[in-house]
Amino acid sequence: MSTLGESPAVLAKRKHVKNNIWCPKTNVEDDPWCDPDNPKMISYKDTVKATSVIKEHIAKTPLNRSKCCVQFNMELYYKFETVHRTGSFLERAALYSLSMLDDEQRAAGVITASLGNWGLALAYHGQRLNVPVTVVIPYTDKCKVILRYQNYGANIIQHGKDLSEAIRKAFIIKSERQNLTYINGYDHPHVIAASGSIALEILEQLPQTDVVLVPVGGGGLIAGIATVAKKLKPEIKIYGIEPKKCCSFFKAMENDNPFQTVVGATVAELLAVPKAGFNAFYTARSLIDKMVLVEDNWISRAILHLTEEEKMVTEGAGATALSAFFATPIILPELKGKTVVCVVSGGNTDYFTLCRNIERAKAIEGRLIKMRLTEQRVKILRIIAKTSCNILQCRCEEALLEESFRKIYLTLICETASHEHACVVKRIMDSMFLDYKFSEDPYNPIQSCVCFPNPMLY
User: Fold this and answer.
1) 74, 148, 198, 262: which has the fewest C-beta neighbours closer than 10 Å?
2) What single string gives the DSSP state of each residue in 233-267?
């Protein structure tokens, strides 16, 4: 039995809610270049054109063979996009996007929203090409980032807690100053096309490449790389690697359409894009062979590995592709024996963040241990020294409410050579001291020592 709905009497009693003048307009984010109803598919020809425009100013980046191919059981290479002037692959996109503006648009200037790398690249090339650049960024406590923007002559506006709020603010400013051109840093067709130049270089430098691992945020990078790679070598595999805490592109693939998602705090903060780009998604979705979600712990270990073994400093987003190989148990067994390229997309990190990631990774691997004791300090330090540990921190705390007035707690943070070394230290401490404890059990994917009966498995 069909119904005609509620009666007119019921409908008449409903309170009519009027939009207040301060209510945001739903169509404020009107970007003709990124139209959800008419996505623009990027072609191989678009990338070739972009490459021809930027090649005089953007040098080819190195493709280096890993020093640890035996450890990973594959021919592993790194495409280091960290060597650009502003430290990321987005210099390609920034230069091409600004080069495609007409004289009137250049004179008026551009506006964008950014989490970091895109805004820096746009500011740098805007200064070179004499194009005024305004960048809206979420509030940040990284003063050095703001200083770098200012050094490149950009107008910096801090607004909101995430990229979505920064984007909305940028469009509000654009609506007030109609002559500004908004450029989306991960979904503009010119951004995607220029990103594809990386794949042209990879297949020129290493034609035998079997698989390319690409970090994914908004999707512009993987869309450009996949478009070119699949055109030149159809059998090549393209894997997208995305942080589990901010996986808008992965969810778009599941949903078959981008939608607004909630992003969490992640080590790969520059990939924290709430909604995948429509142009990027519809360009890449049929070209991506696999999407992989990675944990923050794996990303931290990848940062440590690149720093120690490859002598390369990277940001969390830049190490995301490699982090898939630090999963336990192994999640990509099919890559054994293959020729694999990891795109290291950027290296913009600060000293504090880098140190935190290195400490976190060492703790995960059992190479950084923390213990608390109440015994004689000199005796303890001598014993620790004999175990060949590096004592990084030593803090004494007096007990205020203990029965023994002279009781002192000693907290040590020590660096060990490996998980096995940490086990040796723990056995020695077990045999010599009763009143002590380890703060955290070191991570070990394979339970090989009874000292740590509860390894953290992922």
Assistant:
1) 262
2) -TT-EEEEEEETTS-HHHHHHHHTS----PPPP-S
Identify the sign of the CA torsion 356, 357, 362, 363: positive
Both structure tokens of 49:
């054109």
Joined tokens for residue 421? 């070394």
Q: What is the mean pLDDT of the chain?
A: 86
The ranges of the chain with pLDDT < 70 are: 1-29, 141-142, 373-377, 398-408, 435, 439-458
Beta bridge partner(s), residue 213: 239, 342
> Can you give the pLDDT at residue 452?
39
Residue 40 amino acid letter: K
Q: What is the pLDDT of residues 351-365, one digit of tens each?
A: 889 999 998 998 888
Q: Which two tokens stand for residue 457?
A: 């498995």
Tokens at 394, concatenated: 């030593």
pLDDT of the residue at 317: 97
Q: DSSP string covering 357-385, please?
A: HHHHHHHHTTSEEEEEE-S-HHHHHHHHH
pLDDT at 203: 98
Distance of CA 249 to the CA centre of its chain: 13
- The torsion angles phi and psi of 141, rounded to 5 degrees, stand at -100, 10
C-beta atoms surrounding 195 within 10 Å: 33
Q: Give the Å distances, CA to CA, from 186 to 190, 218, 281.
A: 10, 6, 11
Q: What is the pLDDT of residue 447?
A: 42
CA angle 274, 277, 283 (to 5 degrees): 145
CB-based burial label for 450 (10 Å; 0-12, 13-18, 19+): exposed
CA distance 59 to 101: 22
The whole model's pTM is what?
Answer: 0.81
Count the alpha carbons within 13 Å of 241 in the hemisphere toward its beta carbon: 32
Nearest-angstrom CA–CA distance, 319 and 299: 6
